Amino acid sequence: MQITLVGISHKTAQVEVRERFAFAAEELPGALPRFGGAAVLLSTCNRTEVYLTAHHAIAPSSVVALLKDLKSDDDTPDDAFYYLDGVKAARHLYHVAAGLDSMVLGEPEILGQVRNAFTNATAAGTHNAILSQLFHTAIRTGRRARSETHIGRHAVSISATATRLAKETVGDLAGRAVLVVSAGEAGKLTARSLAGQGVTNLLVTSRTAAHAEQLAQELGGSHVPFGRLGATMAEADIVISSSAAPGFLISRSHVEEAVAGRNGRPLLLIDIAVPRDVDPAVREYGNVHLYDIDDLQRQVDKNMSVRKQEVAKVEAIVDDAVERFSDWMRNRGVVPTVGTLRKRAEATRQTEIERTFKKLKDLTPAQRDGVEAMTAAIIKKLLHEPIGRLKSDDGERYVAAVRDLFNLDGEELDQIQDPVSGT
Known about the structure:
Blueprint: E1 2-9, H1 15-18, H2 28-31, E2 39-43, E3 47-54, H3 60-70, E4 82-85, H4 86-98, H5 109-124, H6 129-148, H7 158-170, E5 177-181, H8 185-195, E6 201-205, H9 209-219, E7 222-223, H10 229-235, E8 238-241, H11 252-260, E9 267-271, E10 288-292, H12 293-309, H13 311-359, H14 365-390, H15 396-405
């Protein structure tokens, strides 16, 4: 039984190509059975990968053709897809689950997406023992990578970094108030990140009231007039600004007004705008903390450097997982076949021994023991070579031949239809 992987990702295709092959959860129950056998389909914003098992080699072109058919796509060149099989396919999935193959090194979402992919295959009835072992070990590998190394620690996005700095500056974010100035995308992402950490009071203002009202609705917050900027800053714990203003939008006078109404409480200003929205001179005020885009990017770069230093440790975890999976795959076919072969030989020996002893009733106990020992030795010698081949490093390739020659099929091996071709 061989594992085959066919995929397309951020390493081989631009987003406008990848998005053509994205599968929503509701599409999977209809799509998975089309592969004709055991299949798991992993689809995220950065990749679509199909993992298959079959008794014989699968033509990657047939899988690509099916993906194109499922998505009604005739334009994507075949070289946008990649193909891996056997241990290489397993290693790739372990890399994916550990965050080593992500666009953002160590990102955490992929582990849940790997888990969901196998859950969907189970629901569709397109899983088998091999894919179950592969995906469960991949999930364990991803967990080990994140618990035993720092590959997933330290924020490496602007919004996540801003949220971490907010926690360090103002403490627990539960119940805190955030003022969002203008409608920049980075500001929205940061506001959502903060809301996810317990911020319950989102205030939105902009020089254009309509823009502020729209953003407030998107964020589930409240619109406040731009003319009350200084007074509103006095109420907020965190201010995020990301406007397109040509000059400073938040001046020293705004901060002076805010500080006067805060009774010494710290104020965090996160300026994600380019050009900057906040006058850097406000840093001279006590308990006012200002981070601009360069400050955040420097922290992101530092955190990414820490993650990169963990890659070797994660690779060691992946190597261990690959070795264990390879042993499992090799023993999965070999061990049951060796056991079945021995049982079949012993059953035949016992049948012939009984038949012989019925004819030779005058044999003494010692003679009977001699016959037992002699026949057992013959069986052992006859099986020594085939069992030795089965237990060798490439023994898996002998399994099918041994089971066929000794008529052992139908007992331990999975009867799995070949994917795609259906044969």
